[in-house]
Each structure stands twice: as structure tokens, then as C-alpha cells.
């Protein structure tokens, strides 16, 4: 379609998310076919709902009924599982909404809550992954200091702070998000009304920096320092030990999953919002619109990947039964719950990484 030289406010696609106010009185510059969305989003959200609900309920069962003694890492993972569970139980509403072709038959309040839960889970996941990363970093690089800051009571306080900060930062979503009627259908926007869209973009940009960019950089720094420490050869041993190899693999896996789930969504969303105020070709607008729709399900898959990460990190909560190991019930050892007092009796880097990788 030709690129007409007209004001950018006249740009529109068939999807209502690029026209949050729902006004239909403007000429249309670009019309895009988004039929793919009505298959992609219901199917992907449905899979995330089923798989995520099963895995997170299983994880919560393990945390609540099988683990007798908690450490800091267990506390963070438990809160992460709660966040994921709250989100996946809201997904059936979105599955129905997109399967019906962007028709929201529920109340405005439910629309606000569903969008709020998405962003709350998104940034709770990022912040709790940051907490887990910092905890591992202290345990491997500063084991003596981790004796003080790695205590479970500090983890509980940090968890409360994470919830408070995330809920406070995402509460404006309840104000911005709204619905609009278009003919016989009602759209549940994931942005705001047209009049408030400029303020919503400013708010989203601040959240991008505070709750994504800064934690992401902190995680990268922590894992780079951890990898350098773990890759240092242990005296008298030329090869990496099994525990060190596993820790290095976990660093790579967490970074890859973090980049796959969160980075594409934030990049495409930023471009998506920015391009709406620029006079660009229809091909460019179509490309970024397509990219944004595709990365939205990716951001939701963290609810399925977080429980898998527990297992990959050595949190084998699936193995509830077994023989006692050194007087500890098998389920406690499987979750990496090792008393902090063990850390003060050895200076071996391999033992520290094994004890503190959780």
C-alpha cells in the first residue's frame, strides 16, 4: 500500500490496539490483516494456561507440603510460583476474548484486572529472578557475606518489598486500561484511551527502565562475575567439576530464557508505541505490529519456564521421596536446602558453588 503523506494520527490498522480510543471517524492510511492473531493468541495462551497451571500448582505443592526447611532461594521461588499461578488462572478470559475476535463480554473491571495481572506477573518474575541471581552471586563470589544477607528472614522481607513495589508501580494500569464499543463488539485495550495514550507511553517508558533495563543489567553483571569465578580452575584440578559445569549451564540457560521471554516483548512494545507517533510506511507499521503480537505470548511463557528453571537449577522438587542423606530428608536436600553453617567450614569453591547454587 502506498505511503500517503498525511498526519501520523490518521494512521490506523484493523486491530483496535493501535486505536485505543476506538474512534472510527478518521480516514484510514493502513489496513492490515490480523486474522493470524485470532489463532495464535488463543492457542498460545491456552497452552500456557494448561501447562503453567499444572507446573506451578505442582511447585506450590512441593514448597508447602514437602519442604520442611526453607532457605532464601526457596522463598524467592515460592513467591515466583504464586505470581505465575495468579497470572495463568486469568488466561481463560483472554483465550475466550481473542477466540471471539476481540470481543470482551465481561466487565470493565475484569478487563483491568486481567491486564494488571499480566504486567504484575511480568515484573514480579523479573524482580524475583534478580533476587535469585543476586543470592547466587553472593553465595559464590562472597560466601561469608552471604551468611548474613542470605538468611531466610531477609528473603521474606525482600519478597514483601518486591510485591509492594510491583503492585505500586503497576497500579496505574488499573487507571489507564479501559474498554470501548465498536459496533456489536467491545474491545479490552491493553493500553489506554486515545486521550491518555501519550501519558501511558511515558508511564510505560519509566517502567521499562526501572523494572526491566536495570534488573536485566544487574542480572548480566551478576552472572558474568559468577561465570568468571566458576571457570577459575580449582587447585589441583584441571577440569571443571560436575557442579561447576552445572552452575555454568544454569547461568547460560537463565540468560537465554530471560532474553527469549522478556527482551523481545519490551523491544517490540517500545517500537510499537513509538512508531504510532511517526509517519512511517505501511510496510514498517505492519512489520512492527506483527512482531509485537508474536512476542506477547513469549512474555507469557515465563509462567511455564519458571518451574522448569527450578529443576534445571537443581531444584528437583519432583523427587519427594528417597533415603535420608546425611540425616536430611531427601526432599530438603533435593531442593538445595543446605544449612548456612556448612559454608563456614570450607573454602573450596566447588563446595560453595554446590551448596549455594540454589
From TrEMBL:
UniProt lists the family membership as follows: Belongs to the G-protein coupled receptor 1 family.
Q: Does the keyword Acetylation apply?
A: no
Write down the InterPro entries for this protein, in alphabetical order: GPCR_Rhodpsn, GPCR_Rhodpsn_7TM, P2Y2_rcpt
User: What residues does the G-protein coupled receptors family 1 profile domain cover?
Assistant: 55-310
Species per Swiss-Prot/TrEMBL record: Lepidothrix coronata (blue-crowned manakin)
Query: Which GO BP annotation is one of this protein's?
Result: phospholipase C-activating G protein-coupled receptor signaling pathway
Q: Which UniProt keywords apply?
A: Cell membrane, Disulfide bond, G-protein coupled receptor, Membrane, Receptor, Transducer, Transmembrane, Transmembrane helix
Domain of life, per UniProt, equals: Eukaryota
Which terms in the GO cellular component ontology are assigned?
plasma membrane
Question: Where in the cell does this protein reside?
Answer: Cell membrane
Transmembrane parts of this sequence: 43-64, 76-98, 118-139, 160-181, 201-226, 247-267
GO terms of molecular function: A1 adenosine receptor binding; G protein-coupled purinergic nucleotide receptor activity; G protein-coupled UTP receptor activity
Q: Record's Pfam families? A: 7tm_1 (PF00001)
Q: Can you say what this protein is called?
A: P2Y purinoceptor 2
Membrane topology per the entry is: Multi-pass membrane protein
SUPFAM superfamilies of this UniProt entry?
Answer: Family A G protein-coupled receptor-like (SSF81321)
Amino acid at each position: 500500500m502506498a505511503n500517503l503523506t498525511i498526519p501520523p494520527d490518521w494512521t490506523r490498522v484493523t486491530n483496535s490496539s493501535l486505536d485505543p480510543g476506538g474512534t472510527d471517524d478518521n480516514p484510514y492510511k493502513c489496513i492490515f490483516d490480523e486474522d493470524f492473531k485470532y489463532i495464535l493468541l488463543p492457542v498460545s495462551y491456552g497452552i500456557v494456561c494448561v501447562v503453567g497451571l499444572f507446573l506451578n500448582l505442582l511447585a506450590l505443592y512441593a514448597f508447602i507440603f514437602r519442604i520442611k526447611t526453607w532457605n532464601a532461594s526457596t522463598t524467592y521461588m515460592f513467591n515466583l510460583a504464586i505470581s505465575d499461578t495468579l497470572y495463568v488462572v486469568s488466561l481463560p478470559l483472554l483465550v475466550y476474548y481473542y477466540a471471539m475476535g476481540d470481543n470482551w463480554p465481561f466487565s470493565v473491571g475484569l478487563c483491568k484486572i486481567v491486564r494488571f495481572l499480566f504486567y504484575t506477573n511480568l515484573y514480579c518474575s523479573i524482580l524475583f529472578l534478580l533476587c535469585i541471581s543476586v543470592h547466587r552471586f553472593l553465595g559464590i563470589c562472597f560466601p561469608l557475606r552471604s551468611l548474613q544477607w542470605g538468611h531466610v528472614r531477609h528473603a521474606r522481607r525482600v519478597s514483601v518489598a518486591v510485591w509492594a513495589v510491583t503492585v505500586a508501580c503497576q497500579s496505574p494500569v488499573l487507571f489507564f486500561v479501559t474498554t470501548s464499543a465498536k459496533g456489536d463488539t467491545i474491545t479490552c485495550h491493553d493500553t489506554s484511551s486515545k486521550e491518555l495514550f501519550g501519558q501511558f507511553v511515558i508511564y510505560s517508558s519509566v517502567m521499562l527502565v526501572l523494572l526491566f533495563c536495570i534488573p536485566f543489567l544487574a542480572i548480566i553483571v551478576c552472572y558474568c562475575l559468577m561465570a568468571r569465578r566458576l571457570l577459575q580452575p580449582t587447585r589441583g584440578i584441571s577440569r571443571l567439576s560436575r557442579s561447576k559445569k552445572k552452575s555454568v549451564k544454569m547461568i547460560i540457560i537463565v540468560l537465554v530464557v530471560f532474553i527469549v521471554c522478556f527482551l523481545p516483548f519490551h523491544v517490540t512494545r517500545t517500537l510499537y508505541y513509538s512508531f504510532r507517533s511517526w509517519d512511517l510506511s505501511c510496510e514498517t507499521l505492519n512489520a512492527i505490529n506483527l512482531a509485537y503480537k508474536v512476542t506477547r505470548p513469549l512474555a507469557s511463557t515465563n509462567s511455564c519456564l519458571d518451574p522448569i528453571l527450578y529443576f534445571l537449577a537443581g531444584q528437583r522438587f519432583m523427587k519427594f521421596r528417597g533415603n535420608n542423606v546425611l540425616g536430611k530428608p531427601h526432599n530438603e536436600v533435593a531442593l538445595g536446602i543446605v544449612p548456612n553453617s556448612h559454608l563456614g567450614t570450607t573454602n573450596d569453591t566447588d563446595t560453595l558453588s554446590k551448596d549455594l547454587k540454589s
